[in-house]
Write a structure and sequence with these properties.
The chain is of the alpha+beta class. It is built from 23 helices and eight strands. Among the domains are: about 60 residues, Arc Repressor Mutant, subunit A (Orthogonal Bundle), CATH 1.10.10; about 50 residues, no CATH class; about 130 residues, no CATH class; about 70 residues, Homeodomain-like (Arc Repressor Mutant, subunit A, Orthogonal Bundle).
């Protein structure tokens, strides 16, 4: 007969507190995503507010003060009284008013607002037109029946960002719930109608079909016929850039086939890209390194540090009038305190990791990529007394501005590669050497990957040929045959 009994057991287990989970989420965000997250929290949490005015928390200390000119220091240190501030604001108001009047005078009269509103620069910006809207606008100008227009719009809305139709026509027929049911021949006719729209090559099912749809843009009939034969019969040779093999297969001179291949490469394999978003994602460095009095100094970029603080007046009011029914506000107050502390901890950790990296890679800052040392996450973690995963989160999507350019922090980490004499070097140094070797090669006789491997071995760097190929591709350098043809 079974019986019930209790058993007391004590175990040790690691658990992540809500505050620690919140800190980890903020730490792994990029600077722009972190700023957006903080803005969202500011808009939702009444216990948080932005600090007014500038703060001296840029991490530069006396170095930032030394870098400023005397005029800037005098202007920054001069106290503002009420009259000075009022006069400055009046002057700024006058300047804005003058600029607004000049802008309105230069602007076309048809775009001036009829009311009292001001015309801003945003009103003059061109509106981006997505691919589906561009194609639907062309369909609206064609005399189509309702059924035909519906089928064409179904194909347009099924295109991907490249402008390709990845779904089969049979699947699209099932999506259209029309009466009578859609026949495959009707969908094929709609596909031909969409493929005739601008841009040429849209609604293709493959790269070869996309390029074939653009062949009418080749004016020379002979070149157009050869290009069609290449796309229909020898697409693999075209992708391999094997012009001599193409010439032998088609019985044409090599110079003629080179002309055909060059003309095909001028076609657009992704016609939908020209209608994609033109917004450019700029990289904002999280930390800045400068050489001051012979030493490399690292400080945080003040433009990426959100000046958030706890609204002490609201917090005190809540403490005085707190009741059990205010549980939601109590959680918001706790979240506000976590956010302030986690913001400080995030940037403190980023600064510590950046300083440790600069101490170990100062030769890179002095002499360039050839002086990059092998570095692992564990070395930085052991020096700072933190976990490797924390270093990985800090170095991912975080950037540092150096005199040599802006780099991601993880750019300074690479595994050690043993040389012939037993010393070590980093993969970054080998990539820098490879780039210099290709830059110094003779244009008429470029170096192949195998030749680069042999020359590296002669210098004591034993690197596999596939590794050389991978590094060359990372540097976005063409293969030897392409470089020879360009020469």
């Amino acid at each position: 007969m079974s019986s019930l009994h209790f058993l007391a057991d004590t175990r040790h287990a690691q658990t992540l507190s809500p505050r620690f989970q919140h800190a980890v989420r903020l730490l792994q965000l990029s600077s722009m995503d972190f700023a957006a997250t903080v803005r969202d929290v500011l808009g939702q949490n009444p216990f948080l507010e932005l600090e007014e005015g500038l703060s001296d928390g840029d991490g530069s200390g006396d170095d930032g003060e030394a870098d400023r000119s005397d005029d800037e220091r005098v202007e920054a240190d001069a106290p503002y009284d009420g009259n000075t501030l009022s006069a400055a604001m009046d002057g700024m108001s006058d300047e804005r008013s003058d600029d607004r009047e000049l802008w309105q005078v230069d602007a076309p009269s048809s775009q001036r607002p009829a009311g009292d509103g001001d015309l801003s620069a945003l009103d003059m910006m061109a509106v981006e037109t997505p691919l589906n809207a561009h194609l639907n606008a062309q369909l609206d100008l064609q005399p189509l029946a309702t059924r035909e227009r519906w089928l064409a719009r179904t194909i347009v809305e099924s295109l991907d960002d490249d402008g390709y139709l990845r779904a089969s026509l049979a699947e699209l027929c099932e999506l259209c719930e029309l009466s009578p049911p859609i026949r495959l021949s009707e969908m094929q006719a709609a596909l031909v109608r969409v493929q005739a729209l601008d841009p040429a090559g849209v609604a293709a099912c493959s790269v070869a079909e996309c390029l074939r749809l653009q062949l009418p843009s080749i004016e020379c009939p002979q070149l157009r016929a050869l290009a069609e034969r290449v796309l229909n019969q020898h697409l693999g040779l075209l992708a391999a850039r094997d012009v001599p093999a193409l010439a032998r297969s088609l019985g044409e001179p090599v110079s003629r086939m080179q002309q055909v291949c060059d003309r095909i490469r001028r076609l657009d394999p992704r016609p939908g890209w020209r209608f994609s978003s033109t917004r450019i994602a700029y990289v904002v460095p999280d930390v800045v390194v400068k050489k001051v009095r012979g030493e490399w100094r690292v400080h945080l970029n003040p433009s990426v540090i959100p000046r958030v603080r706890l609204n002490q007046m609201y917090a005190d009011l809540f403490k005085r009038h707190r009741t059990p029914s205010h549980a939601d506000m109590a959680s918001q107050l706790q979240e506000a305190r976590w956010t302030v502390k986690n913001v400080e901890q995030r940037f403190s950790t980023i600064l510590d990791v950046a300083e440790a990296i600069v101490r170990r890679q100062r030769h890179f800052l002095e002499f360039g990529p050839m002086a990059m040392k092998p570095l692992g996450l564990k070395e930085i973690a052991d020096e700072l007394g933190i976990h490797e995963s924390t270093v990985s989160r800090v170095t991912n999507n975080k950037f540092i501005a150096t005199p040599s350019g802006v780099f991601e922090l993880k750019h300074f980490f690479s595994r050690a590669m043993v040389t012939a004499n037993g010393s070590t070097c980093s993969g970054t140094a080998i990539r820098g050497l490879l780039k210099d070797m290709i830059a110094a090669e003779a244009p008429q006789s470029p170096l192949s990957d195998a030749e680069i491997t042999r020359q590296l071995a002669q210098q004591g760097l034993v690197v596999a040929r596939r590794t050389v190929t991978k590094y060359r591709q990372l540097l976005r350098i063409d293969a030897v045959e392409r470089r020879r043809r360009q020469a």
